[in-house]
Amino acid sequence: MRIFNGTALAARLNAETQARVAELGRAPRCRVLLDGSNAGMAAYGARLADSAVAAGIDLETESYPQAAEVLPRLATLAADATLDAVATLYPLPAGVDPLQAALTLGAAKDIDGLHPENAGLLALGAPARAPATARACRLIAEDIAGPLTGREVVLVGASRIVGRPLAQLLLDAGATVTLTHADTRDLAAHTRGAEIVITAAGRAGLIGPDHLADGTVVLDVSINRGAHGVIGDVDLAALADRDVTVTHVPDGVGPVTTGCLLANIAATACEAGS
Amino acid sequence: MRIFNGTALAARLNAETQARVAELGRAPRCRVLLDGSNAGMAAYGARLADSAVAAGIDLETESYPQAAEVLPRLATLAADATLDAVATLYPLPAGVDPLQAALTLGAAKDIDGLHPENAGLLALGAPARAPATARACRLIAEDIAGPLTGREVVLVGASRIVGRPLAQLLLDAGATVTLTHADTRDLAAHTRGAEIVITAAGRAGLIGPDHLADGTVVLDVSINRGAHGVIGDVDLAALADRDVTVTHVPDGVGPVTTGCLLANIAATACEAGS
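ok -> structure tokens follow
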């Protein structure tokens, strides 16, 4: 088994972002809303803030207010002319409708493809700001496996934030794409036929030896927290002797996703102007 | 082989539309732009106009102007307060960008999911007006095969107007979905594993006996014109003795698509009010 670490690819993305910011001549400003009591979100927010500093981006995190206050808070941030972008990390507080949140924030400051206009541009082949995780997965797949034209890709998970937008990007790249999910009857039959498996199911141990043919590349998007720290969906121990490539958790997809989010922030600021 | 005719399902849809229009108390008005020199488009336009009369919809067709005049014409139609909806049949005249055309028309009068806002709402799970062909395929699949949860569906063709929006609707219904296309290496391997195959490739004879397992339901969206009239992608003669169900061309998916387009026109008029 080979383990893919995303740090080098992320560094290349971040260098591009840094150059764009330097050209812009001012620090793009982004607010990130997150649930501080969720260890995963808090850790992601902290990594994001660290990377932002290096890229020349002024990024502040803040905790979600109570559910009833989320939309008013987003309306305030939407109207704040000093902010270029606002990220609303998922899951949102219980009771907050994702679509209403995105509509309240507006398309201009949405950097994760959550607003209908941005999701629609992606679906119609003119992605302005593809969701960061989806874009990261496409870049990693190409980095490991080369051009995706005609490649057999199976997605495990068909969510609106990862699987579905990722399918659009993979189709744009010429891949044959299968979307599987919790209702899929025989997951292993699909993944065994894949050259590239991208799993975002959030179920530790889901992908084992019976799921993969020799030579398969597996992108593990999931971050599952357990007694032994964070692990993905792939059963690494059971695959240790197999001829497969698996992305590290959390240092595979994670840093590249961060890099794509920072690139989206810089792009938003460049659209807004100096 | 069993042949599915869409007339009965379309009649049910059209009765619903008629009832909605009666409740609205006025005839929704729609303009349909098409290329009169394209026999397929002209025939579709004529069928649409006939069905519209029965549903109580005031639908007029007009020919596309020269390419340079298409966007100005769409801007005029967008500003025409007496029109509820405008359909721009594909393919657009050469040189006209589909996204620019949709943006010029605006989301409010778009009845085929071509505007980013409408495409985005579909991608985010809140479809206001799903593209007519995609919605027709979901309805026909459910009509023939029952609930789609966990069903194995393979799409042949991943276009932005049929395959991709259809994938969204099928995922919403719980199906496992594979999107294949011209770059797919082994199409038959995919379609042989499917319970439902939906082909919109536009290649006569593409789907033959080697492509289908016993019991498969095939929706044939394509309308290919040849020496012997219109045919779909399915090689009917070679499948005559097989245990498969195939939709009629053009009276399978066609009338249901027309029904879905008329339903979208009525929905647009209801949103606009009386």
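Chain A touches chain B through 40 residues (CB under 8 Å).
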